[in-house]
Amino acid sequence: xxGTYLGMPAFPKAAHEAVHDATLRGNLRHATHTIRxxxxxxxxxxxxxxxLREAGKRIKDHTLRHLDRYLVQLEASVTxxxxxxxxxxxxxxxxxxxxxxxxxxxxSEVVKVKSMTTQExxxxxxxxxxxxxxxxxxxxxxxxxxxxxxxxxxLVPAIHRNRGEIRDIFRKEMxxxxxxxxxxxxxxxxxxxxxxxxxxxxxxxRAKVGISGANFMVAETGTLVVVESEGNGRMCxxxxxxxxxxxxxxxxxxxxxxxxxxxxTLPRSSTAERMNPYTTMWTGTTDGDGPSxxxxxxxxxxxxxxLADEVGRQALRCIRCSxxxxxxPVYERAGGHAYGSVYPGPIGAILSxxxxxxxxxxxxxxxxxxxxxxxxxxxxxxxxxxxxVLVHLRERVVEGGQVTSNGxxxxxxxAKGHAAERAAMRAARWAFSRPxxxxxxxxxxxxxxxxxxxxxxxxxxxxSGTRDLPAVPKEPFRDWWQRTNGGMDGKGAAK
Amino acid sequence: MRVALxxxxxxxxxxxxxxxxxxxxxxxxxVEVDFPMAQTCCGxxxxxxxxxxxxxxxxxxxxxxxxxxEAIVTxxxxxxxxxxxxxxxxxxRARAEGRGNSLATTLAPVVPKTYExxxxxxxxxxxxxxxxxxxxxxxYHPTCHGLRGxxxxxxxxxxxxxxxGLELAELPGAxxxxxxxxxxxxKNSDVSAAMGADKVRNAASTGAEVLCAADNSCLxxxxxxxxxxxxxxxxxxxxxILASTEEEPAV
Lengths: 495, 251
Ligand code: SF4
What we know:
The structure holds two protein chains of two kinds. In chain A, a hairpin with a 4-residue loop joins strand 5 and strand 6. Chain A has a six-stranded parallel β-sheet, with helices on both faces. Chain A has a four-stranded mixed β-sheet with strand order 8-5-6-9. Among the domains of chain A are: 50-169 and 206-303, NagB/RpiA/CoA transferase-like (Rossmann fold, 3-Layer(aba) Sandwich); 419-483, no CATH class. Chain A has 23 helices and twelve strands. Chain A is α/β, with parallel strands linked by helices. Chain B folds into two domains: 2-124, 3-Layer(aba) Sandwich (Rossmann fold), CATH 3.40.50; 137-243, Rossmann fold (3-Layer(aba) Sandwich), CATH 3.40.50. In chain B, helix 12 links the parallel strand 7 (210-213) and strand 8. The two termini of chain B are 29 Å apart. Chains A and B meet through helix 1, helix 15, helix 18, helix 19 and helix 20 of A and helix 1, helix 2, helix 3, helix 4 and helix 5 of B. Bound molecules: iron/sulfur cluster.
């Protein structure tokens, strides 16, 4: 499994294969449509949903605006509660801190709670390189790990797999990692879950070190919160002697009371549940209860740079509910892997190019991986205007301009490969600024219409490979309008 | 009442029938329609592809051409949303870039008086029965920028339901994007085509002869896909259905 996605092809190329993979299309269509409908129902039950959404947005904006203050407050409260806080500027630093902490315990294996942040920094691979084995314990992450695969969804990382594929992976791979799959395992959900339970139980009982992320961190109390559905997360958060949590700095909430908003909006948006099944909260360490050593690694990794951008910073409000993925028609057809990041779908398309910059081929292509239909914005529980940010990032790709990189203001050059488009846009702007030029162009199109082919060669195939071209009328509207005096000369009116 | 028709560059060039239908319909309802000849393009394609600065002169031009009119009516949900939603944003961005208020002030007058056609009919004229006749089975696709950008809601459906002879068929997955998305259709043509094909399959499953929408750009994509998949269905702009009468029926 590669967590880094280096050298991924641009989105359209990666999507090409997914679109034509019938099994994948079927798996994704079924899964996203089911959860989409459930979410809509769960949200419709809440009479003050709009107010909750607005409150979530405001709390997050306020926190981000005063992040400097809340981070220091959080560090003080975690420390006072018996935890140790570490600061990591980037993925390498975070990985090094975690590896050192694990090594200091003398252990060579860890159990993991499902965590996007540790995926983002490629922690498992980094630990592997240090001779430390990390076991994923979330059912879907386990499927991904056993299948040497990459996650394709924030919440359901194995959404691209169906039950038959999962059974095959379990049968083939479980024995390499620990307890093998039971003889004669079928693809019924209960049997698959039981196989995973037996396989994981052994790891929970043995592990001395647990690694997690967190959904929220409360600055005033120093409390961390993990929200999950299986209970496997709770096993990792309570059984080991040492707990290491790697959390992005944007996950802070100022007060305990702020949780009341997100504990309502997150479950309904992500799993369509009214209340979350397992909500684990811990504050530092407590004698005789849970891990006796607790480390919090606060991760920046591009977040401060993102915060510097007025339009793009709203992406940091994200609570990773994945509602935007489930509703996205592009995600449904392209699949999560095409986004070349642990953050797929609409949120990935605005987050990756900000956290990683727009210099790689895949990152520069992500802002275009959208028809701007706006379905993501409509469902987002913290009202991130994803289309607005996508267009803003398109501008960054084609125009370049000032961005913040590692805390420094730098001026970005326009990306390569947009020269022809830029010239066409300029020419169109020129013509559209001069009605006479537009008219001359329209007439040329109309008068040559008999010569127009129904399909186009070269780059025009992008359209006409699957769609007929529209028939060109014999005259543009403005000529008709002038010729018939706005249709008033009796004849040509509105035919 | 005298209004300016902002037909849009796409309709002007490729869909003059839609323009004629709007003129016929509004004239029938007692509205005086003017077509300012200096109009060109609202700048949407530029803006949405990342060329905001190229879109600015087009927005200024739009404001020059239409600023004096009482109301501006356009048969395009996405161009309507461009003016109403994105012109104010362009003004804000220019201000944030330290270029003062000039753009915001220039664009401000056209923003509140630009209406998408069905909005104008229902909200300004207060009609849902426009006296139309169209004896066909029709299914309606709400285009994204009309639905989620302008919030057209059920206005188009109410107008269609009042058309004599028209049988309205429910479109499965109506609110899902058809996959056009402007330059998206070219830059991500595989995904765009797959979305278009699904939309067309859903439309065909209704047994309707006509797929109706309030935006010809989306209809160009859907119609092109229908032709390629030989469904026998045809795309028709809502203006053409509403303009159709027993005396002068549209096909
Ligand atoms: S962007 Fe919004 S909808 Fe998407 S995962 Fe984040 S919070 Fe959820």
